Amino acid sequence: MTGIDVDDYDIIIRPLITEQGMHFANVKGAYCFEVNKRANKTQIKNAVERIYSVKVQKVRTANRKGKYRRKGRTYGMTPSWKKAVVFLDPDFHIDLF
User: Fold this and answer.
1) Is position 32 within any domain?
2) pLDDT tens column, 44-81
3) Which pLDDT tens digit goes with each residue over 12-29?
4) What is the pLDDT of residue 6?
5) DSSP 8-state symbol, 53
6) What's the DSSP call for residue 4?
7) Where in the sequence is the domain holding 19, given as residue range(s)?
8) CATH number of the domain bearing residue 84
9) Where are the beta strands (DSSP E) in 1-97?
10) Number of domains in the chain
11) Global pTM?
12) What is the Cα–Cα distance from 53 to 10, expressed in whole angstroms?
């Protein structure tokens, strides 16, 4: 993704709406997103600022490994993905609902 002009919606795949994520949003002003595995923190910060018109303080990322799943006799793995937790300035918030 470096050196290539990519769209913001190629970097931010979807917001993660979970119980823990909603708690972080209300208490800490942090929002969780599923992002492209090749995106870095600077690209994630710029994409969130442009899509949601907010000011981002910091970004934390985590690579989530796929899990083993079984269907009948065959085994497989769910795909791995990247999660980003974006902390906003106290003056801003994102309405996900």
Assistant:
1) yes
2) 999 999 999 999 999 999 999 999 999 999 999 999 99
3) 999 999 999 999 999 999
4) 78
5) T
6) S
7) 8-88
8) 3.30.70.330
9) 12-15, 30-35, 56-64, 68-71, 74-77, 81-88
10) 1
11) 0.88
12) 17
